[in-house]
C-alpha cells in the first residue's frame, strides 16, 4: 500500500518532467549528502531532483569505462546513469549541482562537466561546520547558486519565495520525522522498506504532494491505533521476538534495498536509518526567521549532523547515534557502507568499537552493488540477529 503511494508520487513527477520542456520549466538535479538546499531550486520555479539512484551493479559498472574501481559504486552509478541515459530522472536535467563533499563526489562533478558541457554548478562546502568564517563562505556559495538559478530560470528568487520554500520543506521534514518516530513503537507500525520507499520518493517527487501523502499515511496509522508521536517501545521489542536494529553508514541509495530485505528476512526490524538519504536529511527544520539565505546556510551547515568529511565530526556523530539507539530502543546496529568509501571506512572501526563498548553490537556490511545475496552475508546476518535475540553467541 505504502509502496504503491510512493510509486504514484514518482509517476506523477515523471509526468511533470515530460511536460517541463513545453512549459519552459527547468529541471535541476543535485547529488545527496545534505548540503544542497532544495529550497533554492524550488523557489526558482525549477523542478528539483535529488539524484540518488544506486544499488544496481550494471549501472555502476558502466562507469568503469571512464573511472577506476576505486571510485565508490554510488559515485560510479551517477556516472553510469549519465552515460546510459535510460533513467528519465537523469535525462531531463538542465543543470546539476555538485557539492564539494567527498573526493568521489568532486570527481564525478568533473566528469559530468567534461561530458555534459557547462551544465554543472559546483557548490563549495567548507570542511568545518561550526566556525563563523566557514558559515560566511557557505552563505556566499549559496548566494552564487541562487544567482546561477535565477539566470537559468529567468525567475528572481525573492526573500518571500525563499521563505515560502523553507516552510514547504519544513513541513515535509517534520512529517518524515513524525512518521519515523512512530517506529519507536513495538512492533513498528510500518516496515523499514515501506518507510525508506516513501522517504526516497521525497527525494524526487513534488514536496507538497509527498507531504500530503505522509499526512494520509499518518492518519491511517492513527486509525489503526498507532501512536504517531511514537509510543515508547520496551527494550527488545516486547510483543515480538524480533530484535530492533539501527542502520547507519554513509549512504542508502534509491533502489539499494538488499540489506534491508535481508535484515528483515533474518528476523530483525530495522527501525531507523542514519544515512544521507534518511535521518540526516529530515531530522532538523530550518529556522525561517530573518534573512532566508542566512537561515539556509545555518540550517544546512551548522544545525545538521556533520558528515564524516567535516573536521571534528566524530564525537557529534557518535553522540547522535547513541541518542537514536536509545530513543529507538535498538539492541544492535548494522554499519552499511560501500567499498572504497574512505571517510566512512576510517570511521567504521571506531564507531563499531564505541557502540560495542556501550553494549550495542555492530555488524559491518560492505557492498559494491553486486548482489549481497550471493556472498556470506546471509549467514552472518542470521548469526547476528540470533545473537541479538539472545541466541548462541558463537553461532
Ligand atoms: S558512499 Fe562514500 S565515497 Fe561514495 S559518495 Fe558517499 S561519502 Fe563519497
How is this structure best described in words?
The chain is of the alpha/beta class and 395 residues long. 51% of the residues lie in helices and 10% in strands. It has helices at residues 2-23, 38-43, 57-62, 73-84, 88-91, 103-116, 132-153, 159-182, 192-201, 207-223, 258-265, 279-282, 292-302, 314-327, 342-357, 377-388, and strands at 27-30, 47-50, 95-99, 120-123, 244-248, 269-274, 332-338, 362-367. The protein has a four-stranded parallel beta sheet with strand order 2-1-3-4, with helices on both faces. Strand 1 (27-30), helix 2 (38-43) and strand 2 form a beta-alpha-beta unit. The chain is globular. The chain starts with a helix and ends in a 7-residue tail after the last helix. Mean pLDDT is 92; it is low at 232-238. The chain binds iron/sulfur cluster.
In short:
The protein has helices at residues 2-23, 38-43, 57-62, 73-84, 88-91, 103-116, 132-153, 159-182, 192-201, 207-223, 258-265, 279-282, 292-302, 314-327, 342-357, 377-388, and strands at 27-30, 47-50, 95-99, 120-123, 244-248, 269-274, 332-338, 362-367. It has 395 residues and is α/β, with parallel strands linked by helices. The radius of gyration is 20 Å and the shape is globular.
Topology:
Blueprint: H1 2-23, E1 27-30, H2 38-43, E2 47-50, H3 57-62, H4 73-84, H5 88-91, E3 95-99, H6 103-116, E4 120-123, H7 132-153, H8 159-182, H9 192-201, H10 207-223, E5 244-248, H11 258-265, E6 269-274, H12 279-282, H13 292-302, H14 314-327, E7 332-338, H15 342-357, E8 362-367, H16 377-388
Parallel strand pairs: 1-2, 1-3, 3-4, 5-6, 5-7, 7-8
Helix pairs in contact: 1-9, 1-10, 4-6, 7-13, 8-10
The structure holds iron/sulfur cluster.
Residues 72, 74-75, 102, 104-105, 250-251, 338, 341, 343-344 line the site of iron/sulfur cluster.
Amino acid at each position: 500500500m505504502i509502496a504503491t503511494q510512493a510509486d504514484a508520487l514518482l509517476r506523477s513527477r515523471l509526468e511533470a518532467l515530460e511536460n517541463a520542456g513545453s512549459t519552459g520549466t527547468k529541471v535541476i538535479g543535485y547529488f545527496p549528502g545534505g548540503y544542497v538546499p532544495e529550497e533554492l531550486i524550488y523557489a526558482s520555479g525549477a523542478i528539483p531532483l535529488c539524484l540518488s539512484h544506486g544499488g544496481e551493479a550494471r549501472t555502476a559498472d558502466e562507469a568503469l569505462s571512464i573511472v577506476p574501481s576505486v571510485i565508490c559504486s554510488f559515485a560510479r552509478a551517477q556516472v553510469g546513469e549519465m552515460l546510459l541515459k535510460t533513467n528519465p530522472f537523469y535525462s531531463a536535467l538542465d543543470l546539476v549541482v555538485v557539492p564539494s563533499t567527498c573526493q568521489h563526489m568532486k570527481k564525478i562533478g568533473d566528469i559530468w562537466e567534461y561530458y555534459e558541457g557547462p551544465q554543472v554548478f559546483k557548490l563549495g562546502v567548507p570542511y568545518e561546520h561550526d566556525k563563523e568564517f566557514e558559515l560566511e563562505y557557505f552563505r556566499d556559495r549559496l548566494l552564487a547558486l541562487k544567482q546561477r538559478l535565477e539566470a537559468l530560470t529567468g525567475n528572481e528568487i525573492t526573500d518571500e519565495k525563499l521563505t515560502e520554500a523553507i516552510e514547504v520543506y519544513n513541513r515535509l521534514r517534520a512529517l518524515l520525522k513524525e512518521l519515523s518516530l512512530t517506529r519507536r513503537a513495538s512492533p513498528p507500525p510500518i516496515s523499514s522498506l515501506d518507510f525508506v520507499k516513501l522517504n526516497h520518493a521525497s527525494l524526487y517527487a513534488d514536496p507538497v504532494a509527498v507531504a500530503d501523502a505522509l499526512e494520509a499515511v499518518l492518519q491511517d496509522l492513527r486509525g489503526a491505533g498507532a501512536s504517531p508521536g511514537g509510543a515508547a517501545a520496551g527494550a527488545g521489542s516486547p510483543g515480538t521476538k524480533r530484535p530492533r536494529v539501527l542502520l547507519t553508514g554513509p549512504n542508502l541509495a534509491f533502489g539499494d534495498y538488499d540489506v534491508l530485505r535481508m535484515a528483515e528476512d533474518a528476523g530483525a526490524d530495522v527501525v531507523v536509518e542514519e544515512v544521507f538519504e534518511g535521518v540526516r536529511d529530515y531530522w532538523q527544520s530550518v529556522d525561517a526567521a530573518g534573512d532566508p539565505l542566512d537561515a539556509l546556510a545555518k540550517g544546512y551547515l551548522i544545525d545538521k549532523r556533520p558528515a564524516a568529511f567535516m573536521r571534528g565530526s566524530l564525537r557529534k556523530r557518535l553522540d547522535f547515534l547513541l541518542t537514536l539507539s536509545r530513543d529507538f530502543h535498538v539492541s544492535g546496529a548494522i554499519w552499511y557502507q560501500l567499498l572504497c568509501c574512505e571517510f566512512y571506512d576510517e570511521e567504521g572501526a571506531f564507531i563499531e568499537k564505541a557502540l560495542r563498548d556501550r553494549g550495542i553490537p555492530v555488524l559491518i556490511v560492505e557492498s559494491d552493488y553486486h548482489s549481497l545475496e550471493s556472498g556470506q552475508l546471509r549467514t552472518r546476518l542470521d548469526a547476528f540477529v540470533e545473537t541479538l535475540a539472545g541466541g548462541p553467541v558463537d553461532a
